[in-house]
Amino acid sequence: MKKLHLFVLKTYIGPLVSTFFVVVFVLLMQFLWKYIDDLIGKGLELAVIGELLLYTSAGLVPLALPLAILLSSLMTFGNLGENFELTALKSAGISLQRIMSPLIILTIIISVGAFYFSNNVLPYTNLKMRSLLWDIQQQRPEMQIREGIFYNGIDNYSIKIGNRNFRTNMMYDIKIYDHTQRRGNLRVTVADSGFMRITEDKRYLVTTLYSGFNYEEMQERSRHRRERRHPHRSDDFDEQLLRIELSGFDLQRTDEEAFRFNSQMMNLSQLEFTADSLNRRLSKEVEEHTNDLIRQSFFRHEPYIPQVRDTLLKQQERPPRKPADIYALDDSLTNDDRIMAWDQAVVDARMIRNQITTTKTNFNWQNRLIRRYEMEWHRKFTLSFACFIFFFIGAPLGAIIRKGGLGMPVVISVLFFVLYYVIDISAQKFVKELVVPAFPGMWISSIILLPAGIFLTWKATTDSAILNTETYYNFFKRVSGFFNNLINNKPKSLPEDEHSFTMQ
Fold first, then answer.
1. Alpha carbons 446 and 484: distance in angstroms, whole number
2. Are strands 170-178 and 232-245 parallel, antiparallel or unpaired?
3. Buried b / exposed e along 382-397 (16+ C-beta atoms within 10 A)
4. What pTM, to 2 d.p., does this model score?
5. CB of 392 within 8 A of CB of 456?
6. Domain ranges, ordered by start, for the chain
């Protein structure tokens, strides 16, 4: 039996490792496609790009690991079924559960490891990846000068070119506006052609210009504005070397503490502490707002109209103390005071309504923030549970379809994973919008697929052919034959005279 278990493990581990890295690579390409505009044209070193891809790959494990387990289990048992090895083992009296037992133990170990990874490693890699990606996005790009558009990426300079030869990197119709003196467009350099390059230390932009001139308006100090003549100076040149100092083109690393309070950068204990603190603060704010609303708005102690205040005092002096009689108050007022009182009441009601609306928006925002921490807390467990469920979907399904390779298993795996992912994304949206609590919302996809895994395991154990086309063909053939017999054996209608009855 040990040889059988080793054989099953060797058959399973190879596809598991290969499919895991393939899925991570595909998801990583999707990440690069999404952030390609933030990465290109910034002169990033290979070490920085490799560091970003490494941290991003670690963050893709929650998506890649369940899909790899589903696909590898489908391929393993599909190959065993296609080569009749599974049939030979069953004929020898070995049940499917016994064949799956080493893989079940391995899946449990992988699930525990996935929980440890999600709780300890993933927050660290997410923190590193987010901070590094933020630094890259904030880095100023190198010279991405487009034709016919002013480039303002360099402090105190504005550059425009007419056209550009990308083979020789030669630029034509160049205009450079110097704003270093903070006096507007008073210094301009115009050249027929030229080319630019950045020094190796990225501190200077060296521009070689040909056939142009420099124009500069001189500043003249005069007491009277009418007497100013606006002198200027113009210098022609055949070739000129312009050196511009650059700043902000090197990668600046941000302090990671600024990102540490994000829910994806915390472990279970930190998520529990943060969610509990936010819940206590929200409960305290709700209680304070309710008391202030009752004390200052609903039961105002000092009415604006003196006559109303006097009537209230007289009503409250009579024992026992009762709520104010609104009708008596209204009858005690004159017409002008009554109009003033009702107008003031309408104004107060509108103010209270606006205050309640603003406070409700604030409370909803705090609830959504708390939900993010609660969702991340449950996500630590859903990854491990998803690995377990996908194994019990893939292994029996592979034993049923008996097809190995990368054809049918890939299609079925993608369908199940897309179903799981769509349900999970929809449920997360409902949780974020405060439609459902975090517990059922984050677990609904696993709860839906769990019965499918149990059903498939039962069918594979009983050697059911649920995916055999012949089974469904014979079923529909029997159903059509049944209806054909009903139509052919239908009793004929009786003559018209046999339906008549004689009245005696």
1. 44
2. unpaired
3. bbbbbbbbbbbbbbbb
4. 0.66
5. yes
6. 2-139+377-461, 157-245, 284-376
